[in-house]
Amino acid sequence: MSDVQCFDASALDRVLALPDEHPERRHARACPRCGALLESYRLYQEPGTDADAPHVASADARLDAWLREEIAPVAAPSPRVSTMTPNRRATRVTRWDALLRPGPALALAAAIAVVALVALWPRGDRTMQMRGAPGGATVAVTSVRLDDEGLHLMWSAHPGADAYEAILLAGDGREAARIPLGAGTATTVPRARLPLSTAPADPLFLRIAALSGGEVIATSTVRPLPGP
Amino acid sequence: MPHPPLSDEELVQRAVRDHGGPAGRAAASELLGRHRRAVYIWCWRYVRDPDRALDLAQEVLLAAYRALPGFESRSKFGSWLFVIARNCCLKAVRGPSLLRDDEAEIDDLPHPDGDPQRLVERHEDEERLRRLLVDHLDEDERRALWLRCFERMPVEEIGRVMRLENATGARALLQRARRRLRAALDRARDTEAGAAAAEPSGG
Which of B10, B37, B55 is the best residue to mutate to test the A interface, defined by the most A CB atoms within 10 Å of its own CB? Predict the structure, then answer.
């Protein structure tokens, strides 16, 4: 083995950029530890065909939603750069994106509907209850998955809540269903209880409300329902 | 005119300057979002289960967010995050033995007992083990064995790293490496036994 000392992870980019004949690269070839570390990093940087697998797109969308809900604050001043970079938009495949894809007109209409939905909600007979919710969106939805069995939901507990309910909204903002979720923070809503069969092509949105004595005390943000 | 995207380093600065605050969290979310795909794919390669990989990726991203204030910019953010992902994956999967690996369909030769074997099984003396590999295995063999046993990399990924045609090639390489290592350990054990027998017995 060469006399060059083993390098640590902070040197990975530097060593990778060196020519093959450089002593540190020669060392990496001779030293199983450094060589394995360097090759692992090279593989990490090259997703290859694995990136095309369907589960990757699904996981990517879920991680994106999770980051926005768990790391980014609800109403934070965003960095100058938009989080929707062209590259990421192109790789994210969700039911929402698929619905937007047919054309700019539909995309615009859907976007207006969502903006109106978020801006105007809550309205109607629950207005006073929703207005009383401290801080607005304080229930964090941590997992939403729709499959043949139904809608699998997980959300954060809200202090003082004795029950939760899911509010499903159509693309135009109309309330499509209101489904009691019980007192826990995870449940599966059977597919038969979801308003999917009437107009399967319509986008659906979800909001989870925390209740105390039947009154809404907090809600989550509105988010699109993922496809199966 | 749109602003140019912030670099990873600029986002790190923002995230650290206001860690836990709204601007810091927004910057961290953007920063981690750029790397989430690579992290997920890395995790999936280890566990081969989308749900488990998603949990693992969330664990990685959360750990990175919490550790951001300690990021010293000695390396690029991407390689720093890679180390966190690598460590999380190493914790999540069991490391196979240097001498036996059911997943790699290693032959059923009885593996020797004795101090050298226990040494490598416990991974206690990395430097001595590294010397052993360098002395007795060729470059490909030791690389494959190290990736499998210390990086805990699945056999399929080893094939990819080593640019072998398929996993069968990686399995064959691992099998050969283990056989040679086993033989080297046997010789080392015999040498130690011979040396012990030659020593005069004490009183």
Answer: B37
Whole-number Å distance between alpha carbons of B29 and B65: 9
Instruction: Go through A142-171 and write b for each residue having 16 or more CB atoms within 10 A of its CB, e for each that does not.
Output: bbbbbeeebbebebbebeebeebbbbbbbb
Which 40-99 residues of chain A touch chain B by CB within 8 A?
Answer: 40-45, 47-48, 50-51, 55-56, 58-60, 62-64, 66-68, 70-73, 75-83, 85, 88, 91
- Which chain A residues touch B126 with a CB distance below 8 Å? 33
Strand pairing class (A215-219; A204-212): antiparallel
What are residue A151's DSSP bridge partners?
A146, A189
Separation between Cα atoms, residue A222 and residue A219, nearest integer Å: 9
Instruction: Say yes or no to pLDDT of A172 above 70.
Output: no
Return d(Cα B35, Cα A33) in angstroms, integer. Answer: 25
Structure confidence by residue, pLDDT tens digits, B152-180: 888 888 888 888 877 788 888 888 888 88
Instruction: Check residues A139 and B200 and name the one with the higher pLDDT.
Output: A139
The residues that bridge with A206 in the sheet, in sequence order, are A168, A223
Return the pLDDT at B13.
92
User: For position A77, what pLDDT does the model report?
Assistant: 41
Sign of CA dihedral B51, B57, B60, B62: negative
Q: Touching check for A150 and chain B: CB below 8 Å? A: no
pLDDT, tens digit (0-9, with 9 covering 90-100), for A32-48: 888 888 988 998 998 77
Q: CA A164 to CA A209: how far, in whole Å?
A: 6
> Does A20 contact chain B (CB < 8 Å)?
no
Quickly count: other Cβ atoms within 10 Å of residue A66's Cβ.
Answer: 24
Instruction: State the ipTM, two decimals.
Output: 0.70
Residue B63 has pLDDT above 70, yes or no: yes
Residue of A9, A48, A72 with shortest CB distance to B29: A72
Yes or no: say if A60 and A91 are a contact pair by the CB < 8 Å rule.
Answer: yes
Burial degree of B132 (CB within 10 A; 0-12, 13-18, 19+): buried
Give A95-125 pLDDT, tens digit per residue: 333 333 444 555 555 556 555 555 554 443 3
Share of chain A above pLDDT 90, in %: 12
Kind and range of the H or E run holding B10 = helix B8-17
The pLDDT confidence band at residue B203, using thresholds 50, 70 and 90, is very low
Q: Locate B154 and state its tokens.
A: 């699945």
Q: Does pLDDT of A93 surpass 90?
A: no
